[in-house]
Write a structure and sequence with these properties.
Two copies of one chain form a homodimer. Chain A is built from eight helices and three strands, in the order αβααββααααα. By secondary structure, chain A is mainly alpha-helical. In chain A, strands 1-3-2 form a three-stranded antiparallel sheet. The structure holds a DNA duplex (28 and 28 nucleotides).
DNA sequence: AGGCCCATGTAATCTGTTACATGATTCC
DNA sequence: GGAATCATGTAACAGATTACATGGGCCT
């Protein structure tokens, strides 16, 4: 039941609409949690009904109106209770790892191609997270920002995302290399 | 629908029972996929019904009998088709990241404690993966094993697990440090 | 005697994904 | 004129988690 807490955490500092949340929780961004738009709209409805977030209508011209939400006091309490409880261990679930696990029994060239795709995606995320971090810390350097900044939470999760994607990139390259060495392709040189 | 493929990948090289699979897919191990025992027993039943794995009864003394399974030819075909298809992007879902995202609004000492717990768990996994890797590569050094070994798939996924846990450990320490610097605790010195 | 490991499941519930639905505005 | 962005959902289905159930053997 952590989606609700992820949503609450996203609505602590700023008001956001379901649509804006959806962008933040998108696969392509998601520095601390992933969810689909439908889940978010449903969760916002529930959270509002339970008084953990408060919404208000924002009237717009030349765009559809939207409802923006912010965590309430009781939402913050809920999040604090969540923080006090033990964290579930995180676990791995990744198609690509399953394919690599079967590396000795499947087509090496296909695997190499998929590792390349994942590497490309990781590189894009590295760029994105780098830009987000620069934006959050502004003029300060990282050490200074982390000592004195007033909203470091999102920065810290973003650091984790960055490290993870770098790791992914390195691993993809390494594995692709290993596979290429074992299966020297006749065509590509 | 990748659980079935994860199970197939685990049954390529060796026969295993549901119970043995459950240990391999446990949170504490899970070098390439995580699943609960119930899921595995259910999946094995389905896979056997569809002819993708074949089971046989092993009679034991002083232990309950068990059924062990192995991937069939058609299971391997299924896995190859899976490998040929594009991989879904992997995404982050971790309680602890949600809590860190909210770091500016929650109890810092609780967070530091949880980061410590996670760090401990990560350290244990690093040990475990290190031992598994040594065991798999035997006398050879890593480069040699990866060039000439005949079952490198599990080794490669284990490398990923190791890198991930190392990253986790570093991050937990770093973040706990940052939080301690910002909230010097009166009690602990 | 109590707890853990082996060994295998069922049932109920909760969470997440896929498919579908609508409609205006802005950019190319 | 067609695609992308903004904006919000419903419905059906698949997948995962939690709770419950059973029973023998081994170790302390």
């Amino acid at each position: 039941m952590a989606l609700r807490h992820a949503v609450l955490a996203a609505l602590l500092d700023e008001e956001r609409s379901g649509y804006q949340l959806a962008k933040a929780f998108d696969v392509g961004v998601a520095n601390f949690w992933h969810a689909l738009p439908q889940q978010l709209y449903a969760e916002l409805t529930k959270l509002e009904r339970e008084g953990l977030v408060a919404g208000r209508e924002v009237v717009q011209e030349s765009r559809p109106n939207k409802r923006v939400f912010r965590a309430t006091e009781s939402g913050l309490t809920e999040l604090r209770d969540f923080t006090a409880a033990a964290s579930k261990p995180s676990f791995i679930r990744d198609d690509l790892l399953v394919k690599v696990q079967a590396a000795d029994h499947v087509d090496a060239e296909q695997l190499i191609e998929q590792l390349g795709d994942r590497a490309t995606a990781a590189a894009a995320k590295i760029e994105l997270f780098g830009a987000l971090l620069r934006q959050m810390r502004g003029d300060a350097d990282e050490e200074e920002f982390l000592r004195t900044g007033h909203r470091i939470g999102p920065y810290l999760t973003c650091l984790r995302g960055l490290a993870f994607e770098r790791e992914t990139l390195d691993w993809c390259r390494r594995i692709a290399d290993v596979l290429r060495t074992r299966h020297p392709s006749g065509s590509t040189l």
